[in-house]
Amino acid sequence: LGTMFGGWRIVRTMGQKITKLKPVGGFCAETGGALTLFIATALGIPVSTTHTITGAIVGVGATQRMSAVRWGVAGNIVWAWIFTIPAAAFVAAIAYWVSLQIF
């Protein structure tokens, strides 16, 4: 559902707002993200596909020039990741508590 209703925003943020991606940059970001996932999997390290592709996009932008990356947008994404873990824990705890009261 999230992709259906908000996917276009994610695509725009990843492909235009972090840094302007050209086709070759998109290819390199996808390849870098995939290789990172491959290596992490081989080492038994659990990583997120979203995190790897975001890092790869930032890397592609930074190789053009550091100012090509909109660091404020990248920072907002990182803060969202950090906030998501405790927020999900809180929502799950409330849902569990409510289910204990009902059942």
UniProtKB/TrEMBL annotation:
The highest taxon in the source lineage is Bacteria
Location in the cell reads: Membrane
A GO biological-process term: phosphate ion transmembrane transport
Which InterPro entries did the record assign? Phos_transporter (IPR001204)
Q: Which UniProt keywords apply?
A: Membrane, Transmembrane, Transmembrane helix, Transport
Membrane topology classification: Multi-pass membrane protein
Which Gene Ontology terms of cellular component type are present? membrane
Any GO molecular function:
phosphate transmembrane transporter activity
List the transmembrane segments: 77-98
- Report the principal subcellular site: membrane
Q: Which Pfam families match?
A: PHO4
The protein's name in its UniProt record: Anion permease
Query: Which species does this protein come from?
Result: Variovorax paradoxus
Q: What is the lineage of its organism?
A: Bacteria, Pseudomonadati, Pseudomonadota, Betaproteobacteria, Burkholderiales
